[in-house]
Design brief:
The chain has about 375 residues and is mainly beta. The two termini are about 35 Å apart.
């Protein structure tokens, strides 16, 4: 490694491209209602200082730096209930050096809280603090109930779970359970088994960090792929097959997209090739019958990136894409990701004698030994 010195590595999530010179990352938990809470959460990992830069694999264990409040609503459904919180700090600064949280502010802000299906489960992220006089209000069609939280300490990495019975305007609270948030849910990079991760129907496959061959040998492929070289690539996860019409429909409906689907003036999808359609009367997207498991087509780069971000990920880089292709052939001896000959390529690719007009349902062909199609 550089100067033969061991190094410490730290990582945090969500990633921010700009952190000021004091290594301070701002926290803001005010808007939680419409967000995936993982995008509001704060995860942090630091190594022991014994890692060498010569090793492309650096084990990192992420832990929650915020608190989590969970309310389980009993007895009945509360569809369309709105929940807000006041009296909680909503802004602070987090030090990437010593993990301290300072400059808490926004105690007078109103937090929009995320409500689960039928209002049966309510989750809220909390900056570690002592709440002296907080309120959580429940509003349903003009009826309001409030829970007053007095002199309550919320610690980093802890989950606070309660059972609530709401009989407007009364709230009965019982069954406090305080536990370690994330016990058994920490993210162990490069020490986990090489198994699929259950995101959507076991959608992602782990590609372990390592040193991979990137590019093509001289005279093979295009000049911009030369020279072939080795590059260290960290662990990542990738979809083993194309995103389907049904999966993309789930994304569009979750984002409440209308036709044509757009985000920040960028088009996500160009007509859907007639395979996914929009029902304006109910404001819902749906897949054409019988085409649910076919690959989605005519998605723009913006549309692909937003789908990946909806899952909490991103599009693979070119290096990551090549690493996924070479994961079973670290020495670069094979021409293809599945073999070194063309004898059985028809089992793996839709071409020549087996070619069909248009696309094929995902997983129709043979996967590689790593489970990639």
């Amino acid at each position: 490694s550089y100067n033969n010195k061991r190094k410490s590595f730290l990582a945090y999530y969500p990633y921010m491209s700009v952190v000021n010179g004091n290594f301070i990352s701002p926290i803001n938990i005010k808007d939680q209602r419409e967000h995936d809470l993982s995008k509001v959460d704060l995860l942090y990992a630091v190594t022991s200082g014994d890692e060498s830069l010569d090793n492309a694999i650096v084990p990192l264990t992420f832990k929650h730096q915020l608190s989590k409040l969970v309310l389980n609503i009993s007895d009945r459904y509360y569809d369309n209930m709105e929940v807000k919180a006041t009296g909680f700090y909503t802004k602070a600064n987090f030090s990437l050096v010593d993990r301290s949280i300072t400059e808490r502010a926004g105690e007078s802000d109103e937090i929009d809280v995320k409500v689960g299906v039928h209002g049966l489960r309510i989750e809220m992220l909390v900056i570690p603090q002592r709440v002296s006089n907080g309120f959580i209000s429940f509003n349903l069609v003009g009826n309001e109930a409030k829970w007053n939280i007095v002199n309550k300490d919320f610690e980093a990495g802890k989950k606070y779970e309660y059972s609530l019975h709401i009989d407007f305007p009364k709230v009965d609270v019982s069954g406090e359970l305080i536990s370690d948030w994330g016990k058994g849910e920490e993210y162990l990079v490069d020490t986990e088994p090489d198994t699929e991760i259950d995101i959507i129907n076991n959608l992602l496959v782990k590609i372990a960090g390592n040193t991979y061959l990137i590019g093509s040998p001289q005279g093979v492929g295009l000049p911009n792929e030369w020279p072939q070289h080795k590059a260290g690539i960290g662990t990542f996860w990738i979809t083993p097959y194309e995103i389907t019409n049904e999966q993309y429909v789930s994304f569009l409906n979750a984002r409440r997209a209308v036709a044509p689907p757009m985000l920040n003036d960028s088009i996500l999808l160009i007509d859907g090739a007639g395979e996914i359609l929009f029902n304006a009367s109910i404001a819902k997207w749906y897949s054409k019958e019988g085409r649910e498991s076919y690959p989605i087509t005519n998605v723009t780069w913006y549309g692909a990136r937003e789908f990946a971000r909806w899952l909490g990920g991103d599009l693979p880089t070119e290096r990551e894409w090549e690493a996924a292709c070479r994961v079973e052939d670290m020495e670069g001896k094979s021409l293809f990701s599945f073999d070194n000959s063309k004898n059985d390529e028809l089992d793996y690719v839709n071409c020549k004698e087996k070619a069909k007009s248009g696309t094929m349902p995902v997983k129709s062909l043979k996967p590689t030994k790593y489970g990639l199609y």
